[in-house]
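Table S2 (continued). Query chain:
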Amino acid sequence: MLRSGYRDTFARDNLPPASAWPHLIFVLPELNYPERLNVVSELLDRRLDAGHGERPCFISAGETLTYAQVTEKVNRLANVLTHDLGMIPGNRVLLRAPNNPMLAIAHLAVMKAGGIVVASMPLLRAKELVHPIVKARIKLALCDERLADEMEKARSLAPEMERIVYWGGGGPNSLETLMAQPGYEEFSPCDTASDDVCLIAFTSGTTGVPKGTMHFHRDLLASCDTYGKHVLCAAAEDRFIGSPPLAFTFGLGGLVLFPLRAGSATILAEKVGPEELLEAIEAFRATVCFTAPTAYRAMLGKLARYDISSLRKCVSAGETLPKATFEAWRAATGITPQDGLGSTEMLHIFICCREADMRAGCTGKPVPGYEAKIIGAEGGPLPPGTPGLLAVRGPTGCRYLADERQRNYVQNGWNITGDTYSMDGDGYFIFHARSDDMIVSAGYNIAGPDVEAALLTHPAVAECGVVGAPDPDRGMIVKAYVVLQPGYPADAATVLQLQDHVKATIAPFKYPRAIEFVNQLPRTESGKLQRFALRQTAANSTT
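Corresponding output:
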């Protein structure tokens, strides 16, 4: 490893041993980064050096900030962190707010000053905040004052948290007041190594206790210079928009890293339900949209009321994009949605369909700079058409914060994502299920997402989640939890209709033998379905 620029060595001290790291590959010339690198210098300072300071950078309902204005605010906050709040390089800083320009500025300021960002989903409760605070030994938090209640409760539960500074109130101790001090307009970026940790992103908890994933300065640029450059092909004229929180690396990449690397503008909206997202696309003439499959499906029925003709790319990730949603969105908008597979461990998307090689029902091919293969339980490669575990490697990879689960995710130098995939003869990767979503019923292997995709093609189904439920005769049966569209009765007749529909849509043995109607499904704040919670519910309902 390179000489660190950090005085606080906690992050390096808690990296996995080098023998447990994935094998990193840097096959593209743009991935050959210098040894001394600060990601914010690349994203912001270089824009000003190139004379692009007056271009729009962050757009919100209340203001439009240019690259020059954003850079000054980042410099001011970086000075506050180092001179007023006592942050030293290597300290971890918790960030907490809905998506807005100040949250993005806080990310950039912490990194520029040599700190390590630990962002939290804005809807987390105090007891959920305690885990990252304790795990990452966080002493300082920057928080939107509207979220003070849970933040203060978390401080009472986590003695590690020594100081919280709020913004939005305008008082004498507020962050904006501290930033307004004279002489804070300039800031020299911390002399960080390219492999200094700048981000600890906690997983969303779809599989249990969240894990802290550690990412270097070069990792953030690598995602930009692989997926951002070769798939999005963004230009300075683009305007990005989306729903994922910045604490979710899907959102950080799509709404901060990729647009800034391309010199584009990004629209940061706090309310991004389907209706609000469509309104903002129309109002700000967004060109690139990042959101989840459920949002695209929910927007379909509202498209006629909005002008979204400015859009040129629609990126879908977080969960696999059902074929029915893919085809319906393309038919309604003329835009082919780009499905993508990424993970918090890998930072962002590493398999996707590019516009030139779209295939419905396929996730796609590895992003330039990445490699992928399908392996069996013993680690050997499997032939085309055979489902197995997905293994991937590239310029980014899994490094958990002091977590024994590192050896489960990284095996023989490859990142084992926990997804069951197959690869066809043309090299396209086809999603089957999360490895723990495979339901074995009476000897049949049934992928829960396959059943979900079939159910979603029925007009009565708004959302659904499918898991295995214990059964004395079959071992497991397929059980579906269904949120109905308005106007459809939650009765036995609807159950029968849905079962018959699945039988007619996919192999009959996959149909859900049990269907339970619910008002909502358990999801993480980033919108992912928590199937482990449904599995627990299904198991408890049979005991």
